[in-house]
Amino acid sequence: MDWIISDELGLTVGHLVGWGAAGAMIIGGIAPYIPQYKQIKRTQDAEGFSLYVCLALLIANTLRILFWFGKRYELPLLIQSIVMNITMFIMIHLCVTVRKKNQIIRARERIFTGAIFMLYILLCCVNGSAQPDETARWLDQRSDISTGSEKPRRFYDMDRKYFWAWTDFQSYVDCMLVFSVFGAAVTYLLIEFSPFVELIGFLAVFTEAMLGSPQIAKNLQNKSTEGMSLSMVVMWTCGDIFKTVYFVVREAPTQFWVCGGLQVALDIVILFQVWVYRHNTAAARRTRRGD
User: Fold this and answer.
1) Can you tell me the distance from the alpha carbon of 208 to that of 57, in angstroms, rounded to the nearest whole number?
2) Long-range pairs for 185-191 at CB < 8 Å and ≥24 separation?
3) CB 210: neighbour CB atoms within 10 A?
4) What is the dihedral of CA 31, 49, 103, 115, to 10 degrees?
5) Do residues 176 and 62 touch, judged by C-beta distance below 8 A?
6) Cα(1)–Cα(7) distance, integer angstroms
7) Which of 59, 148, 197, 288 is deepest in the core (most CB within 10 A)?
8) Which helix (H) or strand (E) element contains residue 153?
9) Of 43, 48, 60, residue with least CA distance to 101
10) How far apart are CA 155 and CA 258, in angstroms?
11) What share of the chain in percent tops pLDDT 90?
């Protein structure tokens, strides 16, 4: 009788530990961005946070969702990807709003216009009813977006200089919508091709592993870590260590834990930047406060 109770308790404890780890994976992924969100909202300054971090995570988690359809991994990791995408859009919305408020002179509106062009091209390909020149004329006639120059900007004119630096939130949503639809279409066509599925998995975790790179570049450019939440980076590091161990213990696909180790290494580089630029950061804070 004691053996049965002990066995049952062991099973229950095991379930609780598993559920706790799964919950930590889902919630722990978004936790580092809470202090960064609060800092941007408090200081009304988003210049120290790189929006390319959001881009890396949006691409990585969208690819991870597509990877799930080709190779079913644990459900908590899928839920984490969905929750993370929502979180990144919330961060982008805040940063875009704050930057608009801080504009002393109203800047020219920069928006993502590729969605309309891609949609029209897709329809033409399906119907086979239009030539490229006709497409260009059709778009030119309907262009109502001006860049301030004599010639109006075309719907399909996408300046790479301003990619992911648009002035309205809807542009970021449209861009990721185009990426998701295109990725889903290709995945649907090649879902039975194993090397392609494995490639999606690798690209997903590798892109996520490199999410620290934009912040490293931002810190190098500013020669300071002012505006970046140290709590966010510390939580990044702790979360990535936990996540990598979780991948190994749960025998997740190899791509997951290899890139998890790379992610931890980049976190350590950012923490090193905090120490190297500590004097510049302190001076920037004094300047911002007007001391």
Assistant:
1) 6
2) 187/66, 187/69, 187/70, 191/69, 191/70
3) 17
4) -80
5) yes
6) 10
7) 59
8) none
9) 43
10) 41
11) 20
Assign 148 to helix, strand or coil: coil
Angle between helices 75-101 and 51-70 (to 10 degrees): 160
Token code pair at residue 291: 């001391």
- What is the C-alpha separation between 93 and 33, in angstroms, rounded? 13
Residue 142 and residue 73: Cα distance in Å, rounded? Answer: 46
Quick check: 56 and 176 in contact, CB under 8 A? no
Percent of the chain that is helix, strand, coil (3-state, to 5): 75, 0, 25
Q: Cβ distance 209 to 259 under 8 Å?
A: yes
Structure tokens at 143: 């262009």
Question: How far apart, in Å, are the Cα atoms of 116 and each of 39, 123, 130, 172?
Answer: 36, 11, 15, 14
Mean pLDDT of the chain: 77
Element at 49 (helix H, strand E): none
What are φ and ψ of residue 50, in 5° steps? -85, 125
Q: How far apart are CA 33 and CA 52, in angstroms?
A: 14
Pairwise CA distance, residues 266 & 248, whole Å: 19
pLDDT band at 1 (very low <50, low <70, confident <90, very high): very low
The full length of the chain comes to 291
> Is residue 11 over pLDDT 70?
no
